[in-house]
Write a structure and sequence with these properties.
Layout: E1 4-16, E2 35-37, E3 46-49, E4 65-67, H1 73-81, E5 88-90, H2 99-104, H3 108-115, E6 119-124, E7 138-141, H4 142-148, E8 155-157, E9 199-212, E10 227-234, E11 258-259, E12 265-266, H5 278-284
Parallel strand pairs: 3-11, 4-5
Antiparallel strand pairs: 1-9, 1-10, 2-3, 6-7, 6-8, 8-9, 11-12
């Protein structure tokens, strides 16, 4: 039997505080601001790309690596978050906010004991090692998933939606900041790591998969609508990153209407840079 590697990842999806989002006005017709043309999106050949953040200065640029327990939160915000500059945090196990995760979550037995009765939905690979293909998810318990994990490399625990994702956007919503199976594991998690004190959590996700060594799996090219703090508890993960400035070069799913200065990609008119509809925000006020 081929040796397998189990990968366990905890991801914070985080949003800027309201005062950190660029001011937005109510929805208006598309602006005639400089547009980006692309052949990859013939159904929407022009859109305003106002992204003003970091872009790799050269092909040989390397991600900065900094100790997770050293930077000042305000300095980290100004240098990396506000400028949209990606970085790698090292020595995560030495930080108080991550010690419980690193100490306990590499043990499948610990996870099963704490959260084995949680009901979850798992994703099947669309092709060997390829996930994120919108295949129907399978209901199971977290404990049963962990039991099958060593011999089932074609299932994957990922974001837990309120309903099975389909053409209805409501199915794609996450109704809890800590979706299953995280509730019984909260004693190990810091809701907001001190390093991210200027941000508020949108949701936390636990992702777990297993793949034969030498046969990598992939979640496919995609983008999230929030900043990510991605904590790799065990296994390996390779990221290929693209700047929002290069949106026109991406073969995206949908018609891009605008790229906001903070990099948020809007597929509908009237969406603010924090992902809220301007009219909805006006009603909430």
């Amino acid at each position: 039997m081929a040796k397998k590697r189990t990968t366990i990842k905890l991801k914070w999806n985080i949003q800027p505080l309201e005062e950190d989002v660029e001011p937005q006005s109510p929805p208006s017709p598309p602006s005639p601001a400089p547009a980006v043309k692309t052949q990859q999106q013939p159904q929407n050949a022009e859109f305003a790309n106002r992204y003003s953040g970091f872009h790799p200065p050269s092909a040989d640029w390397k991600l900065p690596r900094i100790r997770a327990d050293t930077p000042d939160p305000q300095e980290f915000y100004e240098k990396y978050i506000a400028t949209r500059t990606p970085c790698v945090l090292t020595h995560g196990s030495a930080t108080p906010w991550a010690k419980g995760v690193f100490a306990n979550w590499s043990s499948l037995a610990y996870l099963k004991e704490k959260a084995g009765n949680e009901n979850i939905m798992v994703e099947e690979a669309g092709a060997p090692g390829l996930f994120g293909t919108s295949r129907p998810r399978i209901p199971t318990t977290f404990g049963a998933f962990l039991d099958a994990l060593p011999t089932s490399p074609q299932v994957y625990l990922t974001t837990q939606y309120a309903a099975e994702p389909d053409k209805d956007d409501e199915g794609m919503r996450v109704t809890d900041v800590y979706p299953p199976p995280l509730s019984p594991l909260l004693s190990d998690i810091s809701p907001v790591p001190p390093l991210l004190a200027r941000l508020v959590p949108q949701q936390h996700n636990l992702w777990i998969g297993s793949t034969p060594i030498g046969t990598p799996s992939s979640s496919g090219l995609h983008h999230d609508h929030a900043d990510n703090l991605y904590v790799l508890v065990s296994g390996h993960k390779t990221f290929t990153l693209f700047s929002p400035r290069d949106t026109a070069l991406m073969d995206v799913h949908g018609s891009v209407r605008e790229v906001h200065p903070n990099g948020y990609i809007a597929y509908e008119h009237g969406l603010r840079g924090d992902g809220a509809f301007a009219l909805d925000a006006a009603e909430w006020r």
